[in-house]
Design goal:
There is one protein chain. By secondary structure, the protein is an alpha+beta fold. Helix 3 runs antiparallel to helix 4 (about 120-135). Helices cover about 45% and strands about 25% of the residues. The chain folds into two domains: about 5-95, Alpha-Beta Plaits, CATH 3.30.70; about 100-165. The protein has helices at about 5-40, 70-85, 100-120, 120-135, and strands at about 45-55, 55-65, 90-95, 140-145, 150-155, 160-165. Strand 2, helix 2 and strand 3 form a beta-alpha-beta unit. It starts with 6 loop residues before the first helix and ends in a 15-residue tail after the last strand.
Length: about 180
């Protein structure tokens, strides 16, 4: 028995099948992953907006309003992502920064990086307080540290800046004592 295939029909069938699979995957991604995650993040008080690109659910951008304790809000966002089992490669926090706050961040950036590298957070905190004590326009300032990151919050008027500096965990290699023969 001889099977005769018409190539145009096969190609059209393939394209229709591929399109249906693509549409089904897009629908599943939107309705079962992206939208529920967006809605859950929007239930947090400080979250004003959430954006995720379809196909890039591992990159999330969260717009925050002013919060009195940035570190707590950031941990809440991370816990929502963790509970949902989302593997987020990049979490971006969108704030309302202005040139003044950016200039302050540049002034204290060296102290922040030195504190992160050396792990001397008390010294880092003292240096940053000294630098920021001279600023008259700065209305709020918060610096927090946990096992995972350093959290910085600066505020001036209706503008605020949030920064998260991840702490890179370094393992210290000790030489093993050598046994004597």
């Amino acid at each position: 028995m001889k099977i005769s295939l018409k190539w145009p029909v096969v190609i059209i069938a393939f394209l229709i099948t591929f399109s249906l699979i693509y549409v089904a995957n897009y629908w599943r991604q939107q309705n079962l992953v992206v939208e529920p995650l967006r809605e859950q993040l929007l239930t947090l008080d400080a979250v004003e907006a959430v954006s995720m690109e379809v196909g890039k659910a591992n990159e999330i951008s969260v717009t925050l309003g002013y919060v009195p304790h940035f570190a707590e809000v950031y941990r809440e966002i991370e816990s929502v992502l963790e509970v949902r089992g989302e593997d987020v490669e990049k979490l971006t926090i969108v704030d309302r920064r202005n040139p003044y706050l950016l200039s302050l961040y540049e002034k204290i950036q060296f102290a922040l990086m030195e504190g992160e590298r050396q792990g001397n957070y008390t010294k880092m905190n003292k240096e940053i307080k000294l630098i920021l004590a001279e600023e008259k326009e700065l209305q709020s300032y918060s610096l927090s540290v946990d096992q995972e990151a350093i959290y910085l919050q600066l505020g001036a008027g209706e503008y605020f800046l949030y920064e998260v500096i991840p702490i890179k965990h370094r393992s210290i290699a000790f030489d093993q004592p050598k046994s004597r023969p």
